[in-house]
Amino acid sequence: MGFGPKPKPLSGDWQALLASPLVQDTLVRLFGGQLPVFQQTNRLPFMSDDVMGMTPLAGDTVSFYSNAASPYVLLHEMGHVLQARHMAPMAEAAIVSDPKNRPKRGSYAETSDDEHISEAFARAMASGRRGFADSTEAQEEQPGAIEFIRWLLGQPPFHQASAPAQQSMSASPQTGIAFLLPFLAGSKGVLAR
Ligand SMILES: [Zn+2]
């Protein structure tokens, strides 16, 4: 429905990120070839400047508000798309119900279950950049991330990249997972809704 500002062309920065291996080799496969429509709009009048993205409950569109592309913002919003599609119900249940996954006090993840799940997803995907070698740190930084790391290990493109199963995930660079952009740099304090 026609709610909010009209979309405008995506910035070159966003176009470059959406054309990168993170999206074309990883997110496309993880989401079964069906990505949402990505668009850029102006913020609505009531939105503060730190709101970087928005995904409606239907999960069919993702709106970005800044010209500056951010892998973290993209992955956070894709966490909402994942929720809309009910792709990982067991991981979601564990994130919101297991006491070990309780969000940090004052963190954005604490604001709602949906945001907690999206934050955990974004951190788990960032860990994928390192072949999940930092999974313990990921869980400490963003409680609940470990649930999505476990889930991702069974999903394309991560699943096939991890063979043979007994091999350490951090043993070698993994084909098919080419994360070119530094996920974590600058991600602190970036707020996506
Ligand atoms: Zn959010």
Walkthrough of the structure:
This protein has a domain of 57 residues. It is built from 8 helices and 3 strands. Strand 2 and strand 3 form a beta hairpin. The protein has 193 residues and is mainly alpha-helical. The protein has a 3-stranded mixed beta sheet, covered by helices on one side. Zinc ion (ZN) binds next to helix 3 and helix 5.
User: Strand content of the residues, in percent?
Assistant: 5-15%
Radius of gyration: 16 Å
Count of separate DSSP helical elements: 8
| Helix amount | 25-40%
Largest beta-sheet characterization: 3 strands, mixed
Features:
binds zinc ion, 193 residues, 39% helix, mainly alpha, 8 helices, single chain
Secondary-structure blueprint of this entry?
Blueprint lengths: L11 H7 L2 H10 L6 E4 L12 E2 L6 E4 L6 H14 L4 H9 L15 H16 L6 H7 L3 H8 L5 H4 L32
Provide a concise account of the structure shown:
With 193 residues, the chain is mainly alpha-helical. The protein has helices spanning 12-18, 21-30, 71-84, 89-97, 113-128, 135-141, 145-152, 158-161; strands at residues 37-40, 53-54, 61-64. It has a domain at 7-44 and 51-69.
